[in-house]
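Sat 14:20. Reprocessing the chain from the morning session after the first attempt stalled halfway. Input below, unchanged.
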Amino acid sequence: GHGRRSRINQTTVMHLAAERGAVEDLELEEVMLTGFRGVKCVESGGPEPGVGCAGRGIITAINFLEENGAYQDLDFVSYDVLGDVVCGGFAMPIREGKAQEIYIVTSGEMMRMYAPALG
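Finished this time. Tokens:
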């Protein structure tokens, strides 16, 4: 049989920073989860849909991770960001020199085209 899987709600960097008043008040251990085979995961979070700039949230989270040593001893880093963010989205990590390559993943389902408008 298959092992029982449990879902853990992960606290995002931006949510915790908003609660504390500043991203500098966070500890890496509060936002980083370690999963299967040592894979480490951090969720940046961002503003409510249609409000603010999610791209800035992404860069804030990446800078926090860099400043707190999250990238030490890693073989690979992957960013999963929305492509429809008006003020940067998938371009922000590259524009800020945080990524070397982009892979665009999409599906043939047409509702994906309408999701931003529904948000």
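The first helix runs from residue 13 to 20.
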